[in-house]
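Q: May I have one protein plus its fold?
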Amino acid sequence: MMRVLLRISGFIAIIMPFFTVAGDDFHFRYLNDRVTDYSNKIVVCDSKKVTPKLSKSETNALKRIISERPLILAYLSTSSYNKCLQPERGELAEALLAYQYLELPSYTVKLAKSTEKLAFTTDFDNLKSYESLRNNDRNFIDSIVVLQQPFNELEVFERIMGM
């Protein structure tokens, strides 16, 4: 009986690296596919960027708000862009999060870490600025439908500020 167990464990020891490599190749390809999907979606969202037409009252209110908190426009731009990037951005984030808990080969880990740094750096100052708005200002901004689509931040800033 011991010999059979020894032979089975020897056989497993011999074939296990092949399964591990195949599994690791799967993880790399899966992540690479998510990165490719995300990159393609970036192209789509970039093509959707517009300079929205704002009413005079919206422009005046936004000018006051942005003068007080200039990071608001950056927050709105990032937020609308990230919404456009769904569901691909979420799928990539989910894979990167799960990969933190797996033992993967170094090439897959490097791809995951570099992708995370490139795709998921967050400026919490922008969020903090948005969260610190008075409720009526936040509700007003959130009601402007044209700012919920990807937009050209610099052009919008120049229009609002009258440059």
